[in-house]
Design goal:
single chain; about 270 residues; mainly alpha; 11 helices; about 70% helix; globular
Length: about 270
């Protein structure tokens, strides 16, 4: 920890706050997205037998073609570099002021945990409702169908989205709540936010990888969302639990009606 603190202090002394924010964003994107996506893809291409035996959806008819994979990688590249370009532009129009706190001292464990948990909880709520909105018939075809073109997803498909969807479903839930708290309430350290972002990227690549190994428990449920469309909209899934979308084909209102009907049968139809 002392070595990390010394390295961080040296970084703060030799670079501007905005340069540090931009550099860490690029490093987190590399570690959280590019490296794992590339490793998953190499397994697909170099070890097809192993890949097939560990796919959640092993049916080859559901797997993307090489042409689709190339298209997905190109699009993900544009989206990823677009994020960096937007950050540079935002820095330009704000006189290169960083969004998050960049100080020579590291965040305390309590501060780190508080901001990390807050960011995850708020992101889950926002992402769940925004995701469901994009499944509305009037919006789905125009904004979200592109992402669902991979019914058996690959890791790079995490960024295979329209610009509109990426901004509202990815950028806003991840960046806006911590940024607002940092600006209006209390500073959130850049390392706290970047650790949160890194965890989001790692889970995102895992849950789109299509593999049954080295995945968090959420991975299979999101793979099921790509297969079935109307279940498992969230990542942490407590919002899915609240709204009854956390089980394959489960509909809260229909299940409630069924339970009432069963109780009526058991009570001889005397329920009032």
């Amino acid at each position: 920890m002392n070595a990390i603190a010394a390295w961080w202090e040296r970084m703060c002394q030799t670079h501007s706050a905005w340069e540090i924010e931009l550099a860490i964003t690029a490093i987190v994107q590399l570690i959280g997205f590019w490296i794992p996506c590339t490793l998953y893809l190499l397994i697909d291409l170099l070890f097809p037998a192993f890949s097939k035996s560990h796919k959640i959806q092993p049916d080859p008819r559901r797997q993307p073609t090489l042409k689709q994979i190339k298209t997905c990688v190109r699009h993900a590249t544009v989206v990823a570099f677009g994020d960096i370009a937007v950050q540079v532009f935002f820095g330009y129009i704000t006189d290169f002021r960083p969004i998050f706190a960049i100080t020579a001292s590291l965040p305390s464990p309590r501060e780190f945990a508080r901001h990390w948990i807050f960011a995850h909880l708020v992101r889950e709520v926002l992402a769940y409702y925004i995701h469901r909105v994009f499944h509305h018939p009037r919006l789905y075809t125009r904004f979200h169908k592109k992402h669902h073109s991979f019914t058996a997803p690959i890791a790079f498909a995490a960024f295979y989205t329209t610009v509109t969807e990426h901004f509202f479903a990815d950028v806003i839930p991840i960046v806006l709540p911590p940024a607002l708290v940092s600006y209006y309430y209390e500073p959130i350290h850049i390392l706290s936010f970047m650790s949160f972002l890194l965890s989001i990227l790692l889970v995102g690549t895992a849950e789109h990888s299509g593999y049954d190994f080295a995945q968090p428990p959420v991975a299979k449920t999101h793979d099921l969302h790509h297969e079935k469309f109307t279940v498992n909209y969230g990542t942490l899934h407590f919002m899915d639990w609240v709204h009854g979308t956390n089980i394959d084909g489960w509909n809260w209102s229909l299940q409630l009606i069924k339970k009432v009907e069963i109780l009526k049968v058991k009570t001889g139809g005397t329920m009032k």
